[in-house]
Amino acid sequence: MIEVVNISKSFGDKQVLKNVSIPFEQGKKNLLIGASGSGKTTIAKCIVGLHQPDEGDILFEGNSLLKMDFEQKRDIRKQIGFLFQGSALFDSMTVQENVIFPLRMFSKMTEEEMVDRANFCLKRVNLENTNKLFPSELSGGMMKRVGIARAISAHPKYLFCDEPNSGLDPQTSIVIDELISEITEEFNTTTIVITHDMNSVVEIGDNIFFIYKGNMWWTGDRHEILETDNKEVVDFVYASKFLKAIRNNSKI
Asked: Rounded to 10 degrees, what is the CA torsion of 48, 50, 53, 57?
């Protein structure tokens, strides 16, 4: 479990986060949503130690990240898997080499053990026999799945997904959502997903946290978000005229 406790963060004169508290539960898909510039990415960067909050704390299993020394923080980072928005695969590396990359950095596995782990992870995301392909030979959906395989290769306790469905067609997005959901449950990870994809919100949102102008504004699950009367949440979720029409018709 990761807990964000009363954190505030400013950059110069601009306050980006205002006394935000969020409990990210283990074994759950925890979704951070909100408009661009609302503070979602800043929260994530505070959690992984790229930013230090001006006030408040970040707790990993009850232990303060801000009070950890270098080695303790490094141990935490070893337990974090990342799925980046653009997949962020290394173009010059094969699929297998990309998946193995975190293992070379953080594990003491032998070459044979790393290859076995890569094969397991690729099989888990339905990409068997793609080991020797390069990113340029993959579709966008395949690249995201390689990104997931790499993110789970080092047995992460915490999984961060930054806009996992960005640039994908609706059908491929469903595949990625299902993989994230299955992996969260299978490995009991604390999964944090930053997303603007409302399909993901209503399909996999166990816990949904809506950030509005740097404030923790609303929390609920994928069912509650469709029924809320919170104006800012409604405006965000039903931003398109089509969705607003569906919502209004459902209330007739």
From this structure: 20
| Farthest CA pair distance, the chain | 63
Residues 6+ apart with CB under 8 A from 91: 134, 135, 136
Backbone dihedral region of 88: left (phi > 0), alpha (psi from -120 to 50 degrees) or beta? left
Q: Indicate the SS3 state at residue 161.
A: strand
If phi over 0 gives left and psi between -120 and 50 gives alpha, with beta otherwise, what is residue 169? beta
Instruction: Report d(CA 142, CA 149) in Å as an integer.
Output: 10
Sequence-ordered alpha helix ranges (H) in 125-169? 140-152
Does pTM top 0.85 for this prediction? yes
| Six-digit token string for 246 | 């569906």
The beta strands (E) that lie in 61-116 are given as 63-64, 80-83
Count, in order, helices (H) and strands (E) of the chain.
9, 10
Mean pLDDT (whole number) for 22-43: 93
pLDDT band with cut points at 50, 70 and 90 for residue 252? very low
Assign residue 47 a region (left: φ > 0; alpha: ψ between -120 and 50; beta: otherwise). Answer: alpha
Give the three-state DSSP class for 60: strand
62-114: pLDDT as tens digits: 999 999 999 999 899 889 998 887 778 899 999 999 999 989 888 888 999 99
